[in-house]
Design a protein that fits this description.
Structural class: mainly alpha
Number of strands: 0
Length: 85
Amino acid sequence: MEQYNNAFLLLLSFIGLIWMIKGMKKKLRLMVFFGVILILAPILIMMGRMTWLPFISSVAFGASLLVRKEGNKGRMDDPVDERNV
């Protein structure tokens, strides 16, 4: 039964890796956040480091901050004042 648990945990880690890469390509912070959690949580569980599990969210949040969308960030290229139109 233990090999089924390990196989399931490895499958979750692989899915997390896919989500993290896809999130980085599309620059989606939430997908990177959950991808890092899905990568790290099963690895720590298999290693027996259950006391480290609360720190995964901090690491995932830090990784998601590395993904930034490049855009105008609220600035308009050609602002139009509607009162003078």
